Write a sequence for this structure.
């Protein structure tokens, strides 16, 4: 009986690894696609302004690749400053955009609900495959 435990554990690990790799391949947020890189490069060449990223874990990627400001960056002891927007919005997005002077939003098709987009003062929209780069008024 004990001899089967390493085999069973190995098989379970292999099954989980294959499952993870399949999910990673299907994910639009867990890896960086060429279209997302194009959107980030386009933002890098745009006039300076604060970027808001959806999903949230793109903030570090965008800040690192562009050396521009993003709305989040709550490392260390700054989480108190993020309370109106993290871990959930406590204000309408239109107020957040005005209060923080957000100029850009990056996301992908279908991620943001329609009522969210309707509340955002979009000036222009650039599309990079499934990814969206919004310039705000």
């Amino acid at each position: 009986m004990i001899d089967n435990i390493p085999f069973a554990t190995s098989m379970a690990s292999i099954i989980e690894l294959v499952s993870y790799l399949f999910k990673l391949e299907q994910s639009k947020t867990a890896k960086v696609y060429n279209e997302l890189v194009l959107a980030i490069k386009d933002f890098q060449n745009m006039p300076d302004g604060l970027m808001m990223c959806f999903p949230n874990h793109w903030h570090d990627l965008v800040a690192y690749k562009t050396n521009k400001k993003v709305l989040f960056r709550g490392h260390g002891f700054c989480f108190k400053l993020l309370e109106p927007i993290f871990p959930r919005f406590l204000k309408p997005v239109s107020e957040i955009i005005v209060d923080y002077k957000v100029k850009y939003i990056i996301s992908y098709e279908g991620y943001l609900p329609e009522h969210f987009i309707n509340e955002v003062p979009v000036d222009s929209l650039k599309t990079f495959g499934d990814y969206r780069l919004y310039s705000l008024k």
Remarks:
- The beta strands are 50-53, 102-108, 122-128, 131-136.
- The mean pLDDT is 84.
